[in-house]
Specification:
The protein has 162 residues and is mainly beta. It contains no helices and 16 strands. It has 2 domains: 72 residues, Glycoprotein, Type 4 Pilin (2-Layer Sandwich); 69 residues, RNA polymerase II/Efflux pump adaptor protein, barrel-sandwich hybrid domain (OB fold (Dihydrolipoamide Acetyltransferase, E2P), Beta Barrel). A hairpin with a 2-residue loop joins strand 3 and strand 4. The two termini are 26 Å apart.
Length: 162
């Protein structure tokens, strides 16, 4: 299966018990040790870790060590490498939680990968990062606010990069 990950193609294959993940020139082997609703205990290249997963039909949010990654199924053709990004640049909550910090303000320029806000969910800190460079057009949340999965947190107006 091919997935889009931060505008890069992630190749995932499995023989049933062991899976292989390839991103660029890096390949790792993994195994799912235990699953329960929204939680995976994994063994990746000999290291144990826990991943929290939430999804809608098109996207999966995977949180590992406080960082959240969005995965979407590739459309087969990767020519443009743009995938299905929201034209409006809406940044949504990966899972229900409480806003712990908002690190940016409206009108502020941000870089791709910059931590814009921190949510707390399931006793974990989740850093919500800018998916692209741009400007914060609007903030829809403030610290202390409880949010639902898919709730719009901010709108980022992107700059054209390559």
């Amino acid at each position: 299966m091919k997935l889009d990950f931060n505008n890069s193609a992630l190749d995932l294959s499995s023989n049933g018990e062991i899976f292989t993940v390839t991103l660029g020139d890096k390949t790792i082997q993994g195994q799912v040790l235990h699953t329960e609703k929204g939680k995976l205990d994994l063994l990746l290249d000999g290291k144990r870790l826990t991943a929290y997963v939430s999804s809608d039909n098109a996207r999966r949010w995977v949180t590992v060590n406080g960082q959240t990654f969005v995965l979407t199924k590739s459309s087969g053709s990767r020519q443009g490498g743009q995938g299905h990004q929201h034209a409006a640049g809406e940044l949504t909550a990966p899972m229900p939680g409480q806003v712990r910090a908002v690190n940016v303000s409206e009108g502020e320029a941000v870089t791709k990968g910059q931590t814009l806000m921190v949510l707390e969910a399931m006793k974990m800190e989740i850093r919500v990062q800018a998916p692209q460079a741009g400007t914060v057009k609007k903030l829809f949340v403030k610290p202390g606010q409880t949010v639902e999965r898919e709730q719009i947190l901010a709108e980022i107006v992107g700059t054209s990069e390559g």
